[in-house]
Specification:
3-stranded mixed sheet, alpha/beta, 41% helix, 11 helices
Length: 247
Amino acid sequence: MPKLLPTTLVGSYAQPDWLIDREKLAKRFPPRVRAKELWRIPAEYLAQAQDDATLLAIRAQEEAGLDIITDGEMRRESYSNRFATALEGVDIDNPGTALDRSGHPNPVPRVTGKVRRKHAVEVEDVKFLRANTDRMIKMTVPGPFTMSQQAQNDFYKDPAEMALDYASAVNEEIRDLFAAGADIVQVDEPYMQARPRRRASTGSRRSTARLRGSPARQRCISASATRRSSTSGHRAILSCPSSPTRR
């Protein structure tokens, strides 16, 4: 019988000190561009070390009795930058600047062309997670409005169009995550709460509607549920217990 209130991590799990330089991370704003200097492990061994840290996070969640297991976001320097910097149309070698939620300037990806997803970003992560636990699993992706606010727009005349293209990229990723075995996909949208006026002016409802193109979303959650969770917090959850793509 399904639990009335299943438990899960809402955010990331603490990365171990042997994996990432926590002192460096604490002295800076959350990275929006890649910050490879934060990793303590040499590049040739980093993927293996991230797998090891992910296994430790999985076991810790299981031992704590959580019902829905995540990968802890062990492979990320922040919740959003790994996905955001993997997209086409984004210049990560010559970053721009944008104000963070705190109001401070922060280096960010610079949008120089049409934003598209070039390839799946988190599919191998969800496959690894699925292979290492028999419980329900959840993956997280950054939301389109948040990514549009964490970028310098040097291409689009209409910011709403940029958010829509980010939404299409997220849609494609969500489809692939469910197909790879995810039971739940969580969309992180902290900037919907932080910038409600800009959210209205950049067509966040249109970008939310574009997410509905995913078959998983159509079966799993209504737009009103997403808006409600996004305005009260910053995590909107797309769950799909009845999806035919669930494994």
